[in-house]
TrEMBL record:
Protein name: Bifunctional o-acetylhomoserine/o-acetylserine sulfhydrylase
CDD domains given in the database record: CGS_like
The species this protein was found in: Gryllotalpicola kribbensis
Presence of the UniProt keyword Transferase in the record: yes
Membership in a protein family: Belongs to the trans-sulfuration enzymes family.
Keyword Transferase (UniProt): yes
Amino acid sequence: MGNTEWGFSTEQVHAGIRPDGGHGARITPVYLSNGFLFDDFEQARERFAGETEGYYYTRYGNPTIAAVERKLAGLEHGADALAVASGQAALTIAFLTLLQQGDHVVSARSIYEGTRGLLREDFARFGITATFVKDPNDADSLRDAFRPNTRAVFIESIPNPRNDVPDLELVSAIAHEHGVPVIVDNTLGTPFHVRPIEHGADLVVHSTSKFLSGHGSAIGGAIVDSESEYLKDARADGHTVTNETFTQKARSLAGRFGPTLSPFNAFLLQHGIETLSLRMRQQSGNALEIARWLEASPAVASVDYSGLESNAHHANAERYLRGGYGAVFAFTLKGGLPAAQALINQVTLWSRMTHLGDVRSLILHPASTTHIHLTADELAEIGIGPGTIRVSVGIEDAADLIADLEQALAAPAA
Ligand SMILES: Cc1ncc(COP(=O)(O)O)c(C=O)c1O
């Protein structure tokens, strides 16, 4: 895939790149072709049997998608990868490849609400249940969550939006004690800040819609496979080829369920990844500067950013994150809901938007948007109050972003 001797910026440009057959195109072109011709009867049979490399139908593989899969596997120092239509599709396919009716997942409580809803509501309808652990860094409470039917553990490398960074090695060790794989959503960490596989994770899941693509223009997702021993009993084995890797099983399942990444989005993703380190350095650097400024502001009650020395999760952030602490975090205003409303309404440079990892800075009020269906108790449990604001910091100049927050905080509530 890649070359583990390379520095990150070299890898992000060169990992997974193969000269394109025939025309010598430097960048794998967009192959907007649903199907691929077979030379003869025998080649058609071989492709369907999985006996030779090559493509037959884009829902099962495509050269543009394959180029970005190789790049992602290389950057995460994994063995293989599957790209799909969205981050939610990646999570769904990862879980469904590992699980069947009657199985159980142990998950951190502090995760993206879409994933929690998927586990808690949608999978529950099909007999797959989940236990959400408030503090997965507490070994006893994590161990207590396991049941005889537990088949996977799920965490986020930088939880959205609380930044309560998990102890990746502790969580992986406890999962492996129970013989089950760990899935890490590395959307907010990105391989620039952390490679979960190096700390024991078995699968890494991404919403590539965010930092990897970077420009807010291409929804996509991916699963990176470590091919570890804990993935050997993956459940999705309802077809004829045996001894398959996790990715081969997941690719078959994705072919059946159908969340295919558009080759055009794969091409945009490939472009985005080539500048990931430049954007992450700037965005995470800006985020630290803004978090420090907010921490010193008299209008702010608390800042949930793991890069701050005062943050309860700073030690884990220092241990696992390189080159910065990410660019998504939450802070809470002393003035509660009226102050939050005023801030959101008064910003002019920040975009009011539910998205993350864009080159543009984004701002949102979780309690009235992404977390609107939660009860007051549930919100309190995950530290989201009426005055909590989530930001995703972009590549703009930090001074301009701070000046906009300053004027918005100073403006009288409407
Ligand atoms: C951490 C995390 N994982 C997964 C997703 C889902 O990704 P997508 O929107 O690409 O389906 C999101 C979306 O916000 C996210 O923040």
